[in-house]
Amino acid sequence: MIRLSLLKELAHTHGTPIFVVDHDAIRRNYAEFRRYLPRVHPYYAVKANSDPAIIRTLFVIGSSFDVASIAEFNLVYDNIRDLPAEERQNYIWDKVIYSNPIKDRRTLQELDQYKPLVAFDNSEEITKIRRYAPNAGLALRIRVPNTGSMVELSSKFGASPAEAVDLIAMASDAGLVVEGLGFHVGSQCANFENYVQALSTSAAIMEEAQTRGYSLKLLDIGGGFPVRYDPHVRPFRELARILRRELDRLFPKELEILAEPGRFMVGSAATLVAEVIGKSERDGKPCYYINDGIYHTYSGILFDHCQYEIKSFRKGPKQISAVFGPTCDALDTISQAEALPDLKLGDLVYTENIGAYSHASSTWFNGFPPAKVVHVNE
Ligand SMILES: Cc1ncc(COP(=O)(O)O)c(C=O)c1O
After folding, report:
1. Three-state secondary-structure class, residue 286
2. Which of 114, 209, 220, 248 has its CA at 20 to 30 Å from residue 299's CA atom?
3. Is 189 labeled as catalytic in the residue annotation?
4. Buried/exposed 128-160: b ≥16 CB within 10 Å, e otherwise
5. Torsion angle, CA of 207/208/210/212, rounded to 10 degrees?
6. Which residues contact 236 (CB under 8 A, 6 or more apart)?
7. Ligand 1: distance of its center to the CA of 43 in Å?
8. Which of 32, 141, 181, 187 should be mutated for ligand 1, with most atoms under 8 A from CB?
9. Which atom of ligand 1 lies at the shortest distance from residue 264's CA?
10. Bridge pairing between strands 18-22 and 372-376
11. Does the Cβ of 141 fall within 6 Å of ligand 1?
12. Is beta strand 311-312 parallel, antiparallel or unpaired with respect to 256-259?
């Protein structure tokens, strides 16, 4: 957690709203992931927060990357642009996965020169990859339970386990190389049983594939590693203990295992500081209007289904209050029930753990720009 006095100082220097990214926290999260899951290579899911400085910090400490669009690919590529061609190619092959199962043909055409590893989950995609990116390696994404995860993904992506080996066979028959299998248990997955089931399904598919003559080299256990937005979320080390046990029980030592953590790397690494720009009372409830909202850093409330706590620097007896963003839309309601002291115009408020899927979906709606990003401990 960034010191409150530093947050105030930064707000004073830069104005508000500011989105303060603590790079020490990113390095700590990465180190924690490596420490508790030494067998798993983390590929940072750039979509969680694609700020180039965040990518740079993770690049420097040796992270691999999960990208899901050409723009994200290029943000990672910027870090290796000056390497000799062979080293650059090896980096992409070893450390980048294009994880979006659905790819525009133009994207595939552009990607093909880099021979990346790409995800797929259906036969149409095999036809497209064969035609436009025949040099790519493939990872089949399967559908696994997303029960209880904050963001559900299985209604959109993942081949049914029953058709998995047929799809691997189809891709091989098309002359493509299927390197492995992957899944995503849903983002902010506090139900660790999802991982247990997904691993067991993956092991069964790999065994069936082996029997049919397809030997897979890698397993991608996706993202979903939860941030402790509240104390009910069990710590990462508990999930890691379960994962280590299941990975060792179900898969051979030589299998390469990778993961695509997004939220886990950056969620706890940023704090938003905003300012009270208006105040009223409606139906007896204090209402505060602040200069960041649902169309901006708090967009995660809508898109990510994440509920954030708003804290004030001012002390005093608290009352249930409403907090609104700055735009003219009533959808721009951050909270109808936030415990806050009596705030004054110009007071600062802040929200911790707002690093993932927040600034990434900020807009310019109504002419209000996204919060200014301020990096500390870079
Ligand atoms: C394919 C894929 N990989 C990784 C992630 C990152 O997931 P998380 O932020 O839950 O770790 C996502 C998130 O939507 C995703 O779709």
Report:
1. strand
2. 220
3. no
4. bbbebbeebbbbbbbbbbbeebbbebbeebbbe
5. 170
6. 32, 33, 36, 225, 226, 264
7. 10
8. 187
9. 11
10. parallel
11. no
12. unpaired
- For residue 129, the CA-to-ligand 1 centroid distance in Å is 22
CA of 259 to the centre of ligand 1 (A): 9
CATH dotted code for 24-267? 3.20.20.10
CATH for the stretch 4-19+268-376: 2.40.37.10
Is any atom of ligand 1 closer than 6 Å to the C-beta of 225?
yes
The residue type at 209: A
**Is the beta carbon of 224 within 6 A of some atom in ligand 1?**
yes
- Domain locations in the chain as residue ranges: 4-19+268-376, 24-267
pTM: predicted TM-score of the whole model, two decimal places: 0.97
* C-alpha distances out from residue 196 to 142, 287, 339, Å: 14, 45, 38
> Quick check: CB of 116 below 6 Å from ligand 1?
no
Q: Look at residue 192 and give its three-state secondary structure.
A: coil
Q: What is the pLDDT along the chain (378 residues), one digit of tens a residue?
A: 899 999 999 999 999 999 999 999 999 999 999 999 999 999 999 999 999 999 999 999 999 999 999 999 999 999 999 999 999 999 999 999 999 999 999 999 999 999 999 999 999 999 999 999 999 999 999 999 999 999 999 999 999 999 999 999 999 999 999 999 999 999 999 999 999 999 999 999 999 999 999 999 999 999 999 999 999 999 999 999 999 999 999 999 999 999 999 999 999 999 999 999 999 999 999 999 999 999 999 999 999 999 999 999 999 999 999 999 999 999 999 999 999 999 999 999 999 999 999 999 999 999 999 999 999 999
